[in-house]
Sequence to fold (321 residues):
Amino acid sequence: MKDLIAIKKDALTPAQFETLTEVPPELEWLANITNEKTRRAYKLDVSDFSEFLGLRRPEEFRTVVRAHVIAWRETLERRELSPPTIRRKLSALSSLFDYLCERNAVTGNPVDGVQRPPANSNEGSTPALSDAQARRLLEAPPEDTLKGARDRAILASLLYHGLRREELCGLRVKDIQNREGVRHLKVMGKRDKIRYVPVHPLAQRLIENYLLLAGHGADNAGPLFRPVRNGRTGVLNRALDPGSIYQNLVKKYGQETGLNIEVNGLCVHSMRATAATNALSHEADIAKVQEWLGHANVSTTRLYDRRKTRPEDSPTFRVRY
Fold:
């Protein structure tokens, strides 16, 4: 609610109380989304819809009907947005109207019944690396520099644990914990859900080597992965920006190893797709992989299950002439 009003004291003043009672539910909905990334994406999606209809005030959403939503969807299709993007935009709008229905601001959700682009439920579109490609990427950073040691530890943390980049950047030194004699990462996932992921031995060795070189292993409350230089402010005691994981690691070493040419669409999420695909290919239980990745629904985990589409199993390689 801090986005709606600046509250400087623990108790509301009468004026603040009156201000909050007048907050439109349309703004309440946005403020009630706790995940910053989701809130930012949904805000942009709903703003796109508002601009399309020419809505100027939050209350004008209550005049929207299904025909408006269909017209917007058709515009998104003409803009040649991808099916997942269109589905997300419609989901954002539907979330808003579900909230308005709950608050009795509207009598129904105009997004209900609007046809959405079909989802590819068989396999995800994010490319995964082969075992040999993953090893090349892991071995790309130099071993004899602090940055190289950090980057190897980061890539290993992504490839062996299937972390999202936001989860990786949010790790603190104290999030490496012993549980029943085994090192675990305490990971803060989506919707602030905490999960504990056992640390792979190779990743543990690389992380420990990085901490030894960086010298902040005793700073328990501090970020685990930090900048190695900061020419602008000189401040190094801060977490890495999630955007830098692609620019300064995946893209950089992808270009150095040629993987950016071999793997079309190489991105940070490819590390997560690689970890999940590899675990499933080696017969990990899909329910365990779902928990490991922090997925709310196993259908999302199945997008990484490519055991039925492995090229080596194709009839192509059974043809003999």
Q: What stands out?
A: The two ends are 70 Å apart (CA to CA). The mean pLDDT is 88.
